[in-house]
Design a protein that fits this description.
The chain is of the alpha+beta class and 339 residues long. It has a domain of 67 residues. The protein contains six helices and twelve strands. Helix 1 packs parallel to helix 3. The chain is flat. The chain starts with a helix and ends with a strand.
Length: 339
């Protein structure tokens, strides 16, 4: 399959068209190793995040003010004409079938109004297009050497299509991939950052950390909100003191979504998994549980429930790039709006 056909398949998938599973798998695998198709895939991801061109408020106000001024001038001229002496009815000419008044005093003000509006709208659309396509070219130039973030690797395909049982997904690991130092609070997933100093008088309890208890007791270890703007929490650890854990997040349409897990992360080596409400998809296109919805800000494909949208959350397939928040996870992952 050549690059043109690969790009046609990726484009049709981005538009939500029905693509056979084997063709989509072949296209995304090819895009992982082809620089040209990788750039094309990133472009599709960017298109999903671009809003419709819109003129600035200042430009719109200026256009409306000009139109209003022309309209007022037209009204003034009309009023003056009505107050003056009656004019003789113009002789109807053969090329004026309706007897319409085609004098300059009638059509010139109207033409000015419409021309002014057209000029302002054309300028607004031109500026928007320059900004968009300039940004697209810059993105392609800056990232031309990176691996396509939309690629789903063959190893991930094998894991998904192999029908791994849901009971095993939380403890699965992949060769040569170290599981991050995760901690879960309720179903929210955090990643260990490091020790820090905190003002204990400002701490607010967030919830118990899964699988942890205070020494020689069954009392839970709590995560606390220390006022961090990014949603990080702090946990007191033996022989260390206070340690910061940041939320594992990704961005979609300028909003932050945090990684969630059905199974509490209580021991090293566990990976977050899907909520119980969403069975593991049988195909890399997300079916029958999910449907393709678009690309996040890293250019990774996101999937939403077949009867829902992104407001409650979305899923990401395994096999994401090494710089992705879900890198190394062999499971489909679930991301919900950050509280």
């Amino acid at each position: 399959m050549d690059c043109l056909r690969i790009q046609e398949i990726l484009s049709e998938a981005a538009d939500g068209g029905p693509i056979p599973t084997d063709l989509l798998a072949e296209a995304t695998t090819h895009a992982a190793t082809c620089e040209r198709c990788a750039t094309f895939a990133r472009g599709l991801g960017l298109l999903q995040t671009v809003t419709a061109p819109a003129a600035s408020t200042r430009l719109v106000d200026s256009a409306l003010a000009s139109i209003a001024a022309e309209r007022n001038a037209l009204r003034t001229e009309t009023t003056t004409a009505e107050a003056g002496p009656a004019e003789e009815t113009p002789t109807r000419r053969p090329h004026e079938p309706g007897g319409r008044d085609l004098r300059v005093s009638w059509w010139a003000p109207r033409l000015t109004v419409f021309a002014t509006a057209a000029v302002f709208m054309l300028a607004a659309l031109t500026l928007s297009a320059i900004g968009y396509f300039g940004g697209f070219r810059q993105l392609a130039a800056d990232k031309s050497g990176e691996t396509a973030s939309t690629a789903i690797q063959e190893s991930a395909d094998d894991r998904v299509l192999g029908g791994t049982s849901e009971a095993d997904t939380a403890t699965m690991n992949t060769p040569d991939v170290e599981t991050p130092a995760y901690a879960s609070v309720d179903d929210r997933v955090f990643r260990r950052v490091g020790a820090l100093s905190v003002d204990e008088g400002l701490l607010v309890i967030v919830g118990p950390v899964a699988g942890r208890s205070q020494a020689d007791t069954t009392a839970p270890v709590y995560a606390y909100d220390a006022g961090a703007k990014d949603g990080s929490v702090v946990v007191e650890e033996p022989d260390i003191g206070w340690v910061a854990y940041e939320p594992v997040v990704r961005r979609f349409a300028s909003y932050r979504y945090q990684l969630r897990t059905r199974t509490p992360l209580t021991v090293p080596g566990q990976w977050p998994d899907l909520p119980a409400a969403y069975p593991t998809p049988a195909s890399i296109d997300g079916s029958p549980t999910f449907r393709f919805f678009g690309y996040d800000e890293l250019g990774v494909r996101v999937f939403v429930p077949v009867a829902g949208d992104e407001r409650d959350g979305f899923s990401v397939a395994p096999g994401s790039p090494t710089d992705d928040p879900a890198a190394g996870n062999p499971n489909w992952t679930w991301w919900a709006p950050l509280p």
